[in-house]
Amino acid sequence: MEVEQIDDFVIDATKADEISGSSVIQSLWSGYGSIKKYELSGCDLPSVIVKHVRPDQVTHPRGWNTDLSHQRKLKSYQVELHWYQSRRNCFEVSNAKIPACLGTQCDGHEVLMILEDLDGAGFDRRKSFVNQKEWQACVRWLATFHAENLNASTSGLWETGTYWHLETRPDEMQRMDDPSLKKAASSIDQKLKDSKFQTLVHGDAKLANFCFNRDGSQVAAVDFQYVGGGCGMKDLAYFVGSCFRDEEAEEMEKEVLDYYFRQLSLSLGRVKNWVTADELEKDWRPLYRVAWADFHRFMKGWSPGHWKLSDYSERVTREVIRNLSEA
């Protein structure tokens, strides 16, 4: 898709008179395209975000340049495309803010998504570290998202969400040098699947994928390439691991879980779901550490020596393996 074609599509989707400027915000992972901001004039929107997937020159920063990796990435953008297309008429009624989708195009593996500029919507802050108000805003978003999507269809999405899901990561599994974890990996995955309460998980709910309002009390989430079915604890454990290190993650565990389940209860009340907060918490809370071990398994194969492979993470995983073997 040429530059002129993209410009025409943006103008048509936004009803702008013209594009007054554009700038690259970031490149997509492994060279699969770019995310750009388009400045507009003559319409209600001062700017929009255009996510352009064009996998011409693919290079994985950690060397995972396999066909399986490539196909997984291509599917992830088709999933994200479907996600935004399916949410175009309902994003305003959700209490878990995501950018509005203004238009999409797809030509083979090339994908174009025109999205609301969250900076213009008041979510113009990005965080590398969070205080209590800020992490609570993210956890509240996750609890709301999980409550609103409890038992939702995964049609067009990943049947099992998250980018580290065992069935999509056989290469990393093979590389992992940890016999006991390798043996337990399927049981860990199955334990999460066996939860009778499944929801949609964001699938990549790291701190970098949350946009904050000015005072840090509210967030919006972006990057829905790995949204799909699963236990909500997968998102929560992954989020905690993205912003708290080792001892802090261990110290924060109970406080984060308690806050999450309070917010989940409130959200379930709003959506009037048939599931009670007590029965959901009883099922999900013990799975937090199982979800943590699931991600630890991926990291051990994908990037041995990574800082996320902490002493706490290792101890949690050993505890999970022991509990599964005793059961």
Give the number of helices.
Answer: 10
Count of the domains: 2
Structural class based on helices, strands and sheet pairing: alpha+beta
Main beta-sheet annotation: 5 strands, antiparallel
Strand order of the largest sheet: 1-2-3-5-4
* Reported CATH architecture of the largest domain: Alpha-Beta Complex
What name is given to the CATH topology of the largest domain?
Aminoglycoside 3'-phosphotransferase, Chain: A, domain 2
Arithmetic mean of pLDDT: 93
Morphology call = globular
Radius of gyration: 20 Å
**Separation of termini?**
55 Å
- Contiguous low-pLDDT stretches (5 residues minimum) are none
Order of helices and strands: HEEEHEEHHHEEEEHHHHH
Within CATH, the superfamily of the largest domain carries the name Aminoglycoside phosphotransferase (APH), C-terminal lobe
Give a count of the beta strands, DSSP E runs of length 2 or more: 9
Measured as a percent range, the helix fraction is: 40-55%
Top-tier CATH class of the largest domain: Alpha Beta
